[in-house]
Write a structure and sequence with these properties.
- This protein has seven helices and 13 strands.
- Helix 1 packs parallel to helix 6.
- The relative contact order is 0.15.
- The strands form three sheets. Strands 8, 9, 10, 11, 12 and 13 form a six-stranded antiparallel β-sheet that branches.
- The chain is globular and about 50 Å long.
- It is α+β, with helices and mostly antiparallel strands.
- A hairpin with an 8-residue loop joins strand 9 and strand 10.
- The chain folds into two domains: 100 residues, Phosphorylase Kinase, domain 1 (2-Layer Sandwich), CATH 3.30.200; 122 residues, ATP-grasp fold, B domain (D-amino Acid Aminotransferase, Chain A, domain 1, 2-Layer Sandwich).
- The structure holds uridine-5'-diphosphate.
- The site of uridine-5'-diphosphate has 14 residues, from strand 8, helix 2, strand 11 and strand 13.
Length: 259
């Protein structure tokens, strides 16, 4: 690891130059931060779990034709991804009121939203990632109208797909954050999902008990943070290599027939 050139160190990941041009290695740390870095901590094993969960979700999305930067997992904590030009906008999709939306609009956490809501935040730590509108994004040139259209369409497809995938394992997808990048291929440019999709950037609640299985356990000092992430991985069937996903989903729903 030490011989590779480090490109960037973020809160939860380190990026290294990849083995060939146009690739990057994402190294997943156990470090966690919240409230714009005011709260910091370590969740033992989080990096290993997020590497696997994000690999799993990116692969499933790829199978249904959603383009992502993911290439392959390299080891317990690292994955190879395509180098993209990151668009400085965080796209949040919400199905149920929680977090900043619940606070900002005075809506009780857990209230289902009348329809899925997409929000944009400007990626800027010094400004604590302010919420912005399409107007700000296009006026300041952070993304073009066509980029935004592609991002919105992809975000809604990801929401539909992940909502169903998680429902199948008894988990409600409350909200999540996506990042996008521009992938260049000669004269062509394609918008793809970048970063990671994991309990660090999704809210996941147990369908029956509403128990939180995501980073809110860390944010709100609920304890058993790692166990929450582990349970998500377990239900997704990660670490049970060889078992087909459909079989595992049926097992969880209790509809598995004895074979
Ligand atoms: N989120 C994220 N990174 C951020 C802000 C939010 O991954 O910098 C995720 C968060 O985990 C949640 C969703 O985006 O799943 C919506 O977060 P919210 O705006 O409610 O902000 P928060 O309550 O996390 O401050």
């Amino acid at each position: 690891m030490s011989r590779r050139r480090q490109i960037y160190e973020g809160k939860a990941k380190v990026l290294f130059e990849g083995p060939e041009p146009g690739t990057i290695i994402q190294y997943f740390k156990d470090d966690a931060s919240a409230f714009n870095n005011q709260k910091k901590g370590t969740i033992t094993g989080k990096g290993v779990l997020n590497n696997r969960i994000s690999e799993y979700l990116m692969l499933r999305l790829g199978e249904v034709g959603v383009p992502t930067h993911f290439v392959r997992r390299l080891n317990m904590r690292e994955q190879l991804v395509r180098e993209v030009e990151i668009i400085p906008i965080e796209v949040v999709v919400r199905n149920v009121a929680a977090g900043s939306l619940a606070k900002r609009l005075g809506i009780k956490e857990g209230t289902p939203l009348p329809r899925s809501i997409v929000e944009y935040y400007y990626k800027n730590d010094e400004l604590s990632n302010p919420i912005v509108s399409e107007e700000h994004i296009t006026a300041f040139g952070w993304a073009a109208t066509q980029d935004l259209d592609d991002m919105m369409a992809l975000a809604l497809r990801v929401n539909d797909f992940l909502t169903g995938l998680f429902l199948g394992i008894g988990i409600r997808l409350i909200d999540f954050k996506l990042e996008f990048g521009r992938l260049y291929n000669g004269d062509d440019m394609q918008i793809v999902i970048a970063d990671e999709i994991s309990p660090d950037n999704c809210r996941l609640w147990d369908f029956k008990t509403n128990e939180k299985m995501d980073k809110d356990r860390f944010r709100q000092d609920l304890g058993n943070v790692e166990a929450g992430y582990q349970e998500v991985a377990r239900r997704l069937g990660i670490f049970q290599e060889g078992a087909p996903a459909e079989h595992r989903a049926a097992e969880h729903r209790g509809t598995k027939t004895v074979q």
